[in-house]
Amino acid sequence: MESQKPAAAPASVAARVKKEEKISNVRGIRNAFLVIIACAIVAVCIFLFGLGNSANFEGGDNAGHPINLAGTVYKGGFIVPILMTLLLTVIVLSVERWIALSSAAGKGNTTKFVQDIKADLAKNDIDGAMQRCKKQKGSVASVIYNTLVKYKEMDANTVLSKEQKLTTLRNAVEEATALEMPSLSQNLPIVATLTTLGTLVGLLGTVMGMIKSFQALAASGSPDSTELSTGISEALVNTAFGIATGAFAVISYNFFTNKIDNLSYAIDEIGFSIVATFAATHK
């Protein structure tokens, strides 16, 4: 019968951990596919009704020669709205990740929060540290709070040995971190994919534009200047959009990956302090 007692405790703690996970309060878009669809609709509307407006072309016809930059971009062809969709998707998901990671960092400065928690642990003020986590909120606070719940349980446990308790605490940090990390890195794989996809689609548009240009040059007699300029415009516009999309996606991905790494370092630092405090204060 005694061998069953330790098994009952994790279920109780798991229920409490599940309840307290809400203090992380990480906001974000769960379905990125809807974002892509919305960006595609916006991009097509901009392409057809904005860039393709007859006022942007000679003679009031979008089949004519463009008289401004908007008309020139429109001449980039059907690849343009695809590239615009990719660029808008990167922008929207970057803003979404900024909001999500800002909420994940909590209400106060993460560095100061780590220092305050370590000071509480040095005084063995576990309740004070837990209250500080509730005030801070965010992913770091959520992981630490759930670990401190386990800390108090191990403190009251008289069945397990010290080494078993330390192992349980380490596992608690890892499990709580594993619950938080997916919400931090959500949608970043899509941004990483767009880093390459934007450049490749832009390159495709460039090649198609150059093909049109060479077809105009290869025409019998004098080359059609309109067809030649259209092909060159398509090539350059798609190149510009592809480079812009790829560059923005790279910057966004690296920036947010670095922020996630900083949060992970904070979690690891406090987790180590919790285990070290338990080891120093218990026999």
Keywords, separated by commas or semicolons:
about 280 residues; mainly alpha; 10 helices
Plain-language structure description:
The chain is an all-alpha fold and 283 residues long. It is built from ten helices and no strands. The model is unreliable at 1-21 (pLDDT under 50).
Quick rundown:
This protein has helices spanning 5-20, 32-51, 69-74, 79-105, 110-122, 126-136, 138-156, 162-185, 188-218, 225-281.
CA distance, first residue to last residue: 26 Å
Uncertain ranges: 1-21
Characterize the overall form: rod-shaped
- Percent of residues in helices comes to over 70%
Radius of gyration of CA atoms, rounded to a whole number: 28 Å
Order of helices and strands: HHHHHHHHHH
pLDDT averaged over residues? 84
Strand % is under 5%
Q: Using DSSP, what is the number of strands? A: 0
Number of helices: 10
Class computed from helices, strands and strand pairing? mainly alpha
Q: Characterize the main sheet.
A: none
Topology:
Elements: H1 5-20, H2 32-51, H3 69-74, H4 79-105, H5 110-122, H6 126-136, H7 138-156, H8 162-185, H9 188-218, H10 225-281
